[in-house]
Design a protein that fits this description.
Helices cover about 30% and strands about 20% of the residues. With about 525 residues, it is α+β, with helices and mostly antiparallel strands. Among the domains are: about 100 residues, Alpha-Beta Complex (Flavocytochrome C3, Chain A, domain 1); about 90 residues, Fumarate reductase/succinate dehydrogenase flavoprotein-like, C-terminal domain (Methane Monooxygenase Hydroxylase, Chain G, domain 1). Helix 1 runs parallel beside helix 4, helix 2 crosses helix 3 and helix 14 runs antiparallel to helix 15. It is an enzyme of class 1 (oxidoreductase).
Length: about 525
């Protein structure tokens, strides 16, 4: 029996394995290749605030404010404080971040940050370089990797918790894999939207696995849209890092107007929710938006990956120092309710990285806090597992899971409306219409053994359904959640969160009061 099963292969998964005791055996499942994940695409970098005069207090404040004051202040403090020693340990072990002419760490500035605090590697290849760093360290570890495998069920034994998974290979063959611990590091669900900034068209499914195993979801309505995906609404080619605007680029429309000058005091470095919404509004008016990079000296040298991609697809625009951009789904703040060590309340089941809803980000993520969260939750989960020894018996009956079979054509019709229904703006009338439509689809579904296509459809529909519930119940506009029928913040709702739980095959949304703000203040 394996000690730990890890689902996913991004930086959260890799940092978890890296911090795990070497005598622990690990079985890793990933849908694609082990190096094919969204962490690899990270351009901007990772926040590191230990060098600051206040030892990270302003970083905590920026995180809380960017999250529209909905994040958990104590979680914010713990996450950032733990990141300091962790990132320093990676530096000590040879992780190479970019340095300036004085051989000092070079800190970049990005949106909603009060000062430069973002570390980069390879210019705009931070995710790629960090992935390589961890994979090199794991070569001699006892890790068995199963590429091209999709986990479709977490095996549980009542109050005894998780006891392994059921995984299906690319040919549709399913098999049970027992283990003492299951760690989900499957990423978020922004792949549900079109366009999105992800590595593939698939969507992380760990939140649905955990939901079916008895865990709760929170903040499913909170999806961050990145303001500068490279390309147009019809076709995108990755994203253009916020670090480009930190280096001096500005967003202009096709009339040459700087669109952010009158929208927010930070202008082009406003929080992502603000900037994305303005780009969206410009597009609704019929404008195209571009990044004007004319103010950046040696753009090719500072951002080699972005330059190469933009030059390949838009050589004419690049001659004018302009990069066409649009908005697209980028990051999901919602996910499985979990602590910074991945604890879900279910013995043997932890969720880390973007798949986890730790309430670190609140209603909108601060730029470059995602890699920080991946590293900290991965490391903390490993330390927690190192300190426990679960003894389980593999006595679960060999029954393969059944899930509701959903008609493919009806699913496609519904999923084509995702971005319009719960994208940049939401309305109660449209949400209720779509809720009834999805409910009708689920009502006529019959449980049966699934295949890969059926599992993917089910996960997308249930994710959409969970998000509709969250969007409906949050009757305010806050962060990335914009209700056109409730256009203002409602401070009575700031400490409330919409939690999703399953009872049998029924999905239930509950409004829960969070008392965290009565606790110690950060500043």
């Amino acid at each position: 029996m394996n000690d730990v099963i890890v689902v996913g292969s991004g930086l959260a998964a890799l940092s978890f394995i890296d911090a795990l005791d070497e005598n622990r055996t690990v079985l890793l499942f990933t849908k694609d290749r082990v190096d094919d994940h969204n962490s690899r695409l990270a351009q901007g970098g990772v926040c590191y605030s230990f060098h600051e005069d206040d030892h990270g207090e302003s970083h905590m404040s920026d995180t809380y404010e960017a999250g529209s004051c909905m994040g958990d202040r104590e979680i914010i403090r713990k996450m950032i404080e733990k990141s300091h020693g962790l990132i320093q340990s990676y530096l000590d072990d040879g992780m190479i971040f970019d340095r300036n002419g004085q051989n000092e760490l070079a800190y970049g500035l990005e949106g909603a940050h009060s000062i430069p605090r973002i570390l980069h590697a390879g210019g705009d290849r931070t995710g790629e370089m960090m992935t390589r760093f961890f994979l090199d360290r794991l070569k001699n570890r006892a890790v068995e990797i199963h590429e091209g495998h999709t986990v479709i069920d977490i095996m549980t034994d009542g109050e005894n918790g998780a006891k392994g998974v059921v995984a299906m290979d690319e040919y549709g063959n399913a098999r049970r894999y027992p283990s003492r611990e299951v760690v989900l590091a499957t990423g978020g669900y922004s792949g549900l939207f079109t366009p999105n900034s992800g590595a593939s068209e698939t969507m992380g499914t760990g939140h649905i696995l955990a939901l079916r195993a008895g865990a709760r979801l929170r903040h499913m309505e909170m999806v961050q849209f990145h303001p500068t995906l490279l390309g147009s609404r019809n076709r995108t080619h990755g994203l253009v890092s916020e670090a480009v605007r930190g280096a001096g680029a500005v967003i202009v429309n096709d009339d040459g107007e700087r669109i952010m000058d009158t929208v927010h005091p930070l202008k082009d470095l406003a929080p992502r929710d603000v900037t994305s919404l303005e780009v969206y509004r410009q597009e609704r008016k019929g404008h195209r938006c571009h990044l004007d990079i004319g103010r950046i000296a040696d753009f090719k040298g500072r951002f080699p990956g972005i330059y190469e991609t933009a030059q390949r697809y838009f050589p004419a625009e690049m001659k004018c120092a302009k990069i066409p951009v649009t908005t697209g789904a980028h990051y999901t703040m919602g996910g499985v309710m979990a602590g910074i060590d991945g604890w879900t309340g279910i013995p043997g089941l932890r969720v880390i990285g973007e798949a986890a809803g730790t309430n670190f980000h609140g209603a909108n993520r601060l730029a470059s806090n995602s890699l920080l969260e991946a590293l900290v939750t991965g490391s903390e989960a490993a330390l927690a597992v190192n300190g426990t020894e679960r003894h389980i018996h593999d006595d679960i009956a060999p029954v393969m899971p059944e899930i509701p079979y959903l008609d493919p054509s009806l699913c496609d019709a519904i999923l084509n409306e995702v971005t319009e229904t719960i994208g940049f703006t939401r309305s109660g009338e449209e949400l209720k219409r779509m809720l009834d439509k999805v409910q009708a689809l689920l009502d006529q579904a019959e449980p049966r053994r699934t295949d890969l296509g059926g599992w993917e459809r089910y996960c997308k529909i249930m994710t959409f359904y969970s998000m509709i519930h969250g969007c409906l119940q949050r009757e305010e506009t806050r962060g990335c959640h914009n209700r056109i029928d409730f256009p203002e913040k409602n401070e009575e709702l700031r400490n409330q969160e919409i939690q999703i739980v399953m009872k049998g095959e029924e999905l239930i949304a509950e409004r829960v009061e969070n008392q965290r703000e009565a606790q110690k203040l950060l500043y």
